[in-house]
Every structure is written in structure tokens, then in C-alpha cells.
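Structure ticket #2291
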Amino acid sequence: MTKIYKTRETLLFRVKNQRDEKSWNEFVSYYKNYIYIVARNMNLEHHDAEDILQRVLLKLWEKLPEFEYSTKRGTFRSFLCTIIRNMAIDLIKKKSRMLNEAVGEDKTQLKNYLDKVSLPEIETIAEREWKLFLANAAWKKVEKELTDKVKNTYLMLLKGRSLDDVAAELEIQKNTVYVYKLRVVEKIQKEIKRLEKELTEM
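Resolution: structure written out below.
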């Protein structure tokens, strides 16, 4: 295998092969929460967001083998956002047809629900949630590599505790607290960059 080929063997590149079940399961484990949260941001109820999640994953499984990646940043997320939006539109149309046939309390409840559902600027929501998604995913990976003292230092600072408070409670020097914080931040930033490449490049 050439070096050039290895540099392209990211997760998105691997899931183009529908027979690569391991890579597909890894892809789903990364993206399912992200897709669900974007759907929920449309004020969809849990079961509808779950339905959209499953439909989006099925569509991705069908379309990724033929998806051609562009070097422009965010191309895959734009592709994904389009699929999520289209699935949400299909859901709204389906429920609108149900509304026309519903009667009584069922009609009232369904109308109230549809009135709350919105198709906002999905790209804006997707970008915001993507940054949170990457940060959370990076932290889950990084925290496993930290000692308890380093991890507790970072979490206490994250909650707004001062350097002096953290140093006193953990019985370490103030400059050590600062060093621990920098160490964790650097690890998280490195992992975010790795994830960004792994999950957005073909």
C-alpha cells in the first residue's frame, strides 16, 4: 500500500465500501448522536428524531459509495445536512397528510406539534452542533489517557474554580495546575484535528 493511499484511508473513505461492516459501525457510533441532535433542534419529538436518524443512516449507506468528496471544507457536512433536511421535510409532509385525516383531540394535538416543528437554518445549527460534537468526542478519548489528578484539575477549572482553589484542594502547586490545564487543552485540540480529518475527508 502506498503512502498516498494511506493518507486517504480515513473513516469516510473506508465506509464507501459497503462490505466494510467494522468501519460502518464506527461511522454510526460517531455520527448517530450528531444526526439525532440536529433533528431534535427542529423541535421534533424523540421518536420522530429517531425515525429520521434511521432513515438518514440508511440513505448514507446507499449514497456514500458514490459520493465524490470535494476539497472544500465542510462538503460532507453539507451533504449530510441536505439529507437530514430532506428527511425532515418528508416527515412533515407525511404528518400534514395525517392531519387532514385526523379528527377531534388527535387533530388538535398533531396540529400543535406541527406548529412547533421548524426547518431553521440547518447549516447554522449543524455547524454549532458539529463543534460541540467534536469537543465532546475528543474529551471522551482524551480523558482515558489522563491521570485522576490531571483530569480533576481540568474539570474543576472547567466549572469555574480558580487556580488557587484547585491548587489548594488537590494539594499541588499553582503553576502545576496551569501546566495540567495546558496539557489537557493541547491533547483535546490535537484530537479534534484528528477527528476533523477522520470524519470529513475522503
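Closing remark: The mean pLDDT is 85.
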